[in-house]
C-alpha cells in the first residue's frame, strides 16, 4: 500500500514541477534567458568593460574616425552597421559612406555603441527552428532615423577637404578595418 502512495507522490511532484516550469516559461514571454559567460554576473559598477563602454559613449559618439576628400557628394552611398571586434563586449555602431564611382570608403563616423550584456534569450517560433537572441545596451544616435542626419553629413563631406586617419589596406578589405577600429578606439597596435 505504501509503495503505491510513494509512486503517486513522486508522480504528483513531477507534474507540479512541470507546471511550475511551464508557468515560468509563459511568464517570461515564452523565452528562456541564460548567461553566455560567467562575466554576466559581474555588477556593472565593478565591470571594467562596462566602464570602458561608458567612457567611449561620452567621448567617441559623433566622432569622425576616417575621412577622405570627395569631389561630388551626390555619388555617395551610406550604411550603418555594428562593427563586431575580436574579444570585445563593446560593439561600435558606425555610419559608413562609400563613393559609388570608385567603390572606396570615404567617411566613417561613430554613431553609437552597443554593450553585450552576455545574456541571451532562447524562444521557439511556431513551426520554425528555435531562435536565440543576444541582449545589448545601446547609447548613441537614433539609428532608426539616421536618414535625418545624412544631408548635413553630406554637406560636411563636400564642404571640406579634410583627411582623417590612416589609409586602409584595400587588399585586406574589412580585416584591415577591424584592426583600424581596434587601434582607434582601444589603442591597440596591429
Could you characterize what this model shows?
This protein has 190 residues and is α+β, with helices and mostly antiparallel strands. Helix content is 34%, strand content 28%. It has 4 helices and 6 strands; from the N terminus they run αβαβββββαα. Strands 1, 2, 3, 4, 5 and 6 form a 6-stranded antiparallel beta sheet that branches. The longest helix is centred in the first third of the chain and has 26 residues, at 2-27. The relative contact order is 0.16. The model has no long low-confidence stretch (mean pLDDT 78).
Output the keywords:
six-stranded antiparallel beta sheet, elongated, alpha+beta
Q: pLDDT under 50 segments (min length 5)?
A: none
The description of the largest β-sheet is:
6 strands, antiparallel
Report how far apart the termini are: 75 Å
Average the pLDDT over all residues and give the rounded result. 78
Could you write a compact summary of the structure shown?
This protein is of the alpha+beta class and 190 residues long. 34% of the residues lie in helices and 28% in strands.
Describe the secondary structure blueprint for this structure.
Layout: H1 2-27, E1 32-35, H2 48-60, E2 64-67, E3 76-82, E4 90-99, E5 105-123, E6 131-140, H3 147-159, H4 174-186
Antiparallel strand pairs: 1-5, 2-5, 3-4, 4-5, 5-6
